[in-house]
Amino acid sequence: MTIELFIKKYLPIIILAVLVRVAIMPFYFHPDIKTYYFQASFLQNGVVNIYSFLESNKSKLPLKEDFVYFPLSYYFLGSYEILASPFLGSSFKDWLYDANATSMENLGVFRYLFILKIPYLLLDITIAFLLMSFFSSQEQKKKIFILWLFNPISLAIIYVYSNLDIIPVSLTLLSLVFLQRKHMLLSALCLGLGAGFKAYPLIFLPFLLIYAENLREKIKAVLVSLGTTLVIIAPFLLSPSFKQETLLSGLTTRMLLPTINLGFGETILVAIMPLALLFFYTLIRNNTIKKEPTYLFLVILLLLFSFIHFHIQWILWIMPFLILTLVKKPQLGKLVLFLLVTAFLIPIFYNDLSMSVSTLRPISSWFTLVPIPYKIVNFIYDPYIIQSLLHTFFASATLIVTWVLLKEDNL
Amino acid sequence: MSRLILLSILIAGLAILLPAILSFGIRVIPGQVQPSMGMTERIYSTSVVTEVFSANRNNLSGIGVSLKNPNLQNKQDVVVSLFNDNSELLGQSTVNGASIPDGGFIKFIFEPIRNSEGKNFVFVLSSIWSHQSDATEVFYVNEPVKNPQKLLNGKAPCLSKTSDLKIIMVDLKVDQNCTLLLVENSQKANVSYVTFYKASPLLIIQEVYSGWWNRLYADKSFFVTYLLIIATLVGGLVLAARSKSN
Description:
By secondary structure, chain A is mainly α. Chain A is built from 22 helices and 2 strands. A two-stranded antiparallel ribbon of chain A has the order 1-2.
């Protein structure tokens, strides 16, 4: 693409997309952004091992949460905070340390939220370009660019629920780009780096090996991917708080929770089983999923989300692959849209203030008085049944999408 | 491109209008932010809690407190009774313990008191059917002082004859000015509470947006930078659109 073509075709779209984001960034808030930037602020004080630091200083700190992510998250957010500190102002630390409800009344809150979300904005735009690289036709490039930048769900997840998931999401997508271009080791490296932020990209590793040309490449890919993650986490492996709060935390081990009891202490891991089925099937059959890693990445996450309780921020993991499928396979459009909307609605019905109305707290603390969807539904019906119904529909749609993609079998 | 611009206006507009839409879900507005909470005090048959306060708006219509009720152990009524400075009962609101989650912030809503602004009131938090063992506990800002005489304009607040106070009478004395007078066991309550006021949706929307604007404007350097960013982006968009049409 020439610079002239880029300026003519894409620059107005990018400017418009940034404008929309700028309108949202300072005004919406989820507690995660404050918690993780609070913890990352200790990097400025020279704290290298955040896990043991939080463990030994918890009683003195205003926010008691553990650091549940992998080490690169801490270093990334902490480094950005150091860079941004001249623009954040001297009162920023006071705001971070203020655990009271009144902290949202702080006059600098719009500035803080705007500046803290800038890395997410850059990665968001980067994802749009990465998605374009999957297509050769200009029409499809433009379509996916617009679909990513102007869909309200990714906007809400990135700028309202603003968690750092966008970093591993970018790396996972980059891994897929490299895989499409047959750069197996770079693809494995991206997964390893992504797992340095959050563990989930490692789910893709066994599937990545299917694409390796020979055993030597498979071994190299495993070494590069796991080795990268291991190098990142190695300094913390002896830290009990890292093991307890991150490696074995409820978030990391969520996929081991749903089980079918076989007796005598044995269980079938419900969330792992469909992934294992997919792995073995893909291993022996030469089907569409195998030929098109995008679909494989999509189905892996869809199957995983179908059988675990997931957080709203996690939907971002799946978003690029859903959007890619929407453009690559328009005949699945309705199902993909259904999956997207359902995945977004399920967490909205959680009994959690910060999932809905409370995100408007920077605008006015009065919004915490607005009944949350869970409570509204509770007047009429059991909200857990509504959630379960949505989750069942989501799982059913997932199975159909998987079946459609698998049945296009070439053997 | 024009469709994209429309879509962008729609998304940004929704983000800006969402507070107005959600404002319709706000029935009452708080008079203050709830102070941070410290220790707790039990509320049961012979232990009630009182608090004197001054209303900062008209249409006083509720009191909100945080209550401890582990495992929903208390299933008795918890009552907030509101008195004016003449010790007249103005309103009462009851919430059953079964619907008080542990640590939950509970709003006791009553009929709005029209000209409440600037006037003194006292609320009494009681739960006469509760026992000490299964009592709900109210959160204090700091440690309460036991058994002071809680006086308002020289008089103790009295509870209504109509309220169900059979058990609490042990701790109450009859006064010539009112039926029952709280004397014993009332706490000097530094309760962590919030007052609520009824307001029209339009007033709420107006206050939400004026508060939003004022706070945005208050951080002047950010406000100017923010406007400059928006102006630059709009200018860039116009230029890019022109170069596209050429």
